[in-house]
Amino acid sequence: MALTDEAIVKIKGMITSGELGPGDRLPKEADLAARLGLSRNSLREAVKALTLVNVLDVRHGDGTYVTSLDSAHLLDALNFMVDLHRDDSVLQFFEVRRLLEPGVAALAATRISPEQVTELRLLTSDLAPDASVEELVANDLRFHRGIAEATGNQVVCSLLDGISGATQRARIWRGVTQAGAVERTLAEHAAILDAIEIRDAEAARAWMTAHIAGVETWLRKAS
Questions:
Q1: pLDDT tens-digit profile of 56-84?
Q2: Where are the transmembrane segments (predicted)?
Q3: CB neighbourhood size of 21 (10 A)
Q4: Do 3-66 and 72-222 come out as alike in CATH topology?
Q5: pLDDT per residue as tens digits for the range 13-43
Q6: For the stretch 130-144, what's the b/e string if a residue is b when 16 or more beta carbons lie within 10 angstroms of its beta carbon?
Q7: Residues near 92 by Cβ (< 8 Å), separated by ≥ 6?
Q8: What DSSP state is assigned to residue 25?
Q9: Whole-angstrom Cα Rg for the chain
Q10: Which of 3, 46, 84, 208 has an alpha carbon 20 to 30 Å from 12's alpha carbon atom?
Q11: Stretch 111-122: mean pLDDT, rounded?
Q12: What tens digit of pLDDT does each residue of 148-173 get?
């Protein structure tokens, strides 16, 4: 194991064991290096790596701290990774969405509040038939994010935020090249929401599967 990797593993162990918790300050560099049996250079490289993935926060002149470790913060690194993927890998992200979002819709059907239903209903009626592709994409993103929020699961929200960036361009391609994209998207959103509102989890799952599969099928044909 490379020395930097060893340092990362040891710092991670301090966090997972509870020795260091969210917001805690790490010991001084020299003390921590000696305690872990590592060189200060290896420790510095490990701290840099853990800072990049939002596990540690280096505050110059103050010290190095463990971040809040909340899912949204940690999964920012996923957003960065997704942005680096090429367009030809976007189908893989659609496969992930097709695996994930039907279950999210089913869970939302059991947990959604009346206020959240109202907000989503407004979204489905907030788009004109002649809306631009950009407006369609923005509305679609807000709708799917709203369903994720209705689950009350922040990890789910963060994961979907992470993979939505990769699929956004495909949505735009679909809107540009397919007639009736607005009407079709709104009809599918309405069907998903109808199922969620009456707390029919399996119908919500089925409609969401069909919704995502439709975009994925089009993209496979267009590739």
A1: 999 988 999 999 888 777 777 666 666 66
A2: none
A3: 10
A4: no
A5: 999 999 999 999 999 999 999 999 989 999 9
A6: ebeeeebbebbbebb
A7: none
A8: B
A9: 22
A10: 84
A11: 97
A12: 999 999 889 988 888 887 677 777 77
User: Can you tell me the distance from the alpha carbon of 88 to that of 70, in angstroms, rounded to the nearest whole number?
Assistant: 31
From residue 99, how far is each of 8, 104, 185, 210 by CA, in Å?
32, 10, 20, 12
Q: Would you call 85 helix, strand, or coil by DSSP?
A: coil
> Sign of the CA dihedral 57, 58, 60, 63?
positive
Residues 6 or more apart whose CB falls under 8 angstroms from that of 157 comprise 72, 145, 148, 149, 151
Provide the residue ranges of all domains of the chain, joining segments of one domain with +. Answer: 3-66, 72-222
Q: What is the mean pLDDT of the chain?
A: 88
- Residue in the block written with tokens 């992200």: 93
Mean pLDDT, to the nearest integer, of 117-130?
89
Amino acid at 59: R
Interatomic CA distance for residues 137 and 42, integer angstroms: 45
Pairing state of beta strands 63-66 and 56-59? antiparallel
Write down the CATH number for the domain with range 72-222: 1.20.120.530
pLDDT for residue 93: 85
Q: Which residues lie closer than 8 Å to 32 by C-beta, 6 or more apart?
A: 26, 43
Fold that domain 3-66 belongs to in CATH: Arc Repressor Mutant, subunit A (1.10.10)
Indicate the pTM of the whole model.
0.73
